[in-house]
Amino acid sequence: MIDHGAPVRAVRLRGADLSHVADRARSTLGDDVMILHTRVVRNGTGSMVEVLAAPSDAIDRARARLQPEPLPTPLRHANGRPYCIALVGPTGAGKTTTAAKLAVRRGMFGGARAGLLTIDTYRVGGMEQLATYAELADVPFEVVYDAREIDGARRRLAQTCDVIIVDTPGRSPASAELADRWRSLLDAIAPDEVHLVLPASLRADLAVDVGRAYAASRTHGGATHLLVSKLDEVPRERGVTDLALSLDMPTRWITDGQDVPADIKPGVPRLLRTCGLAADADPDWMPA
Ligand SMILES: Nc1nc2c(ncn2[C@@H]2O[C@H](COP(=O)(O)OP(=O)(O)OP(=O)(O)O)[C@@H](O)[C@H]2O)c(=O)[nH]1
Ligand SMILES: [Mg+2]
User: Could you give all domains of the chain from N- to C-terminal order, each with its CATH number?
Assistant: First the structure.
């Protein structure tokens, strides 16, 4: 039984005993097969052993494509500048909520303290949303309208913060001129990482098009990482790994709910699990 929905093919095999099923897994998937889970399945007449297996090189390949570089330690640059992580993406993808999670959650960056900076000054309510989170959690917060304000905002944040999370406006394809303005502003901020936030329910082929819109161009820097949001909205998280692999960008985090700051997790373990590689990928799948 091959799961055609996943980019890393996990195979479920059943047999009378484990050694018999493991032999079959090897003959189906090759000698380096990885047995992910084993369980006993009862039927009317007795019980059988069922294993979930995948070729280990496929798992390694997926991991290699999604794994980000570790964050530098210390986060702050040698010249005193805080490390800077910006979030970009389509309207409503979850940028502001994710920025709040990153900045508010204790221990998100080890002992380093995070501050918030927004350049979403175009939309009514854009900055108020983030300002509220910042105030509630006592996180330093700056608003930048213009490139001339960047140095001052950065200097103020650098007094207490080792990392700055930058929120940006949603970009719809129809507002190219506006997008050009905030992208210029973001270029002037020169973030160390730019995470493209995309909802997990987005079709992989559409995600590739959206990814192109946020790629580096002649005039602007582009996204460096993918951040898949709203995993909780996709039943069984099906197809989410396809989405991530289709963009071929390292994925440091995913989000799986509206709760600030709880619903943010490391990306790679979750995405690999999502393609059937761990026990809880499938609610029906309970280890023996
Ligand atoms: N279910 C779910 N909802 C989320 C998640 N992240 C954000 N949301 C919700 O998605 C909606 C939009 O979130 P925002 O953070 O405002 O999205 P945005 O990308 O900043 O939107 P714009 O600034 O308008 O482009 C809000 O209702 C959030 O609570 C998530 O991981 N899961
Ligand atoms: Mg926003």
Answer: 11-65 (no CATH), 71-276 (3.40.50.300)
